[in-house]
Amino acid sequence: MRDRSPDGLEPIETASVDDLRSPQLRRLQQTLRHAYENVSLYRKKFDEAGVRPSDCRSLEDLSHFPFTTKVRRIIDNR
């Protein structure tokens, strides 16, 4: 069982914004890297946008990455 604070909350639930940013960025970088390496659609879109997963050095950098919607994917695959 995880350690809980005296009020019964998980440590993540009481963490400061600054404490949350590092793990969020790390997970985002892992997700971008996985998408680029394993999903040809995202590799193509990242390449077209001129970005690589390593270009994401802050959460704000996410705005440079192209993303798609389910509807866009259906249209693109026709």
Please give a structural write-up.
By secondary structure, this protein is mostly helical. The chain has 4 helices and no strands.
Structural class: mainly alpha
What is the terminal-to-terminal distance? 49 Å
Helix fraction, binned, reads: 55-70%
How big is the Rg?
17 Å
- Secondary-structure element series: HHHH
Morphology: elongated
What is the residue-mean pLDDT, rounded to a whole number? 88
- Count the strands? 0
Number of helices: 4
Largest sheet: none
Residue share in β-strands: under 5%
Question: Spans of 5+ residues with little confidence (pLDDT < 50)?
Answer: none
List the helices and strands and how they pair.
Blueprint: H1 11-14, H2 17-38, H3 40-49, H4 70-76
In short:
55% of the residues lie in helices and 0% in strands.
Keywords for this entry:
mainly alpha; 78 residues
